[in-house]
Amino acid sequence: MSVEARLSELNITLPEAAAPAANYVPYLVDEKTVYISGQLPMAEGQIAFKGKVGESISEDDAVQAAKLCAINILAQLKAAIGDLEKVEKCLKLEIFVNATNDYTDHPKVGNGASNLIVDVLGDAGKHSRFAMGAGSLPFGVPVEIGATFKIK
Length: 152
Hints:
By secondary structure, this protein is of the alpha+beta class. It has 3 helices and 7 strands; from the N terminus they run H-E-E-E-E-H-E-H-E-E. It has helices at 3-9, 59-81, 106-121; strands at 27-30, 33-39, 42-43, 46-47, 87-98, 128-134, 143-151. The strands form 2 sheets. Strands 1-2-7-5-6 form a 5-stranded mixed sheet. The two termini are 18 Å apart.
């Protein structure tokens, strides 16, 4: 099944890739490697989720925020390479979770993004990753995720 067919089956429409918020590029293509800068849980140009996991946002909402970050990663990837069928492999996700000091289930939040990437890209979406806690993240978001892909 094609990537576009999977997106359609999952009822996902990729948004326009967001412009960077500071002095960096949203993606960098180096030969067959694409580096995607950290993506936030943005929808329609606005922050869709705010809060600290374990305090002001539920774990379930943080999982949804991670899914949204993954959708925005795919939007940046498509902007970088034009066609998601060119993806050979998702190499790595870098997941930062804005959480209280005693929160320890960062991988569960990260699964929101990991599962979506695999659901959309199939075997090419299986990746390495880390999911770690952060004391705060930009704009008070609960999750920020960067990614690295290999292209054909």
